[in-house]
């Protein structure tokens, strides 16, 4: 049996962000579009004084374009919003 160790990196920041996300979901509900959730996340992060970059491209190497993430929060946490419609 493989034992997995659960490690929570940046616990204080993670709890603040998770709390903000639950607040947004409880307010908006589950039927909004991805852009609406992203706008709400941006607004709440600004209100809480949490620094972030929105729609940041993450290159794979110098000449290869990588992925784009919705939010890079305090240069520590990546957040990508998803929504079902």
UniProtKB/TrEMBL annotation:
It comes from the Bacteria. It holds the Pfam family PDDEXK_3. This is GxxExxY protein.
């Amino acid at each position: 049996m493989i034992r997995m160790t659960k490690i929570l990196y940046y616990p204080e920041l993670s709890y603040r962000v998770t709390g903000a996300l639950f607040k947004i979901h409880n307010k908006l509900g589950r039927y909004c579009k991805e852009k609406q959730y992203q706008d709400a996340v941006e607004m709440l992060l600004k209100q809480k004084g949490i620094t972030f970059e929105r729609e940041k491209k993450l290159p794979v190497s110098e000449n290869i374009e990588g992925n784009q993430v919705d939010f890079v929060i305090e240069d520590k946490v990546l957040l990508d919003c998803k929504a079902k419609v």
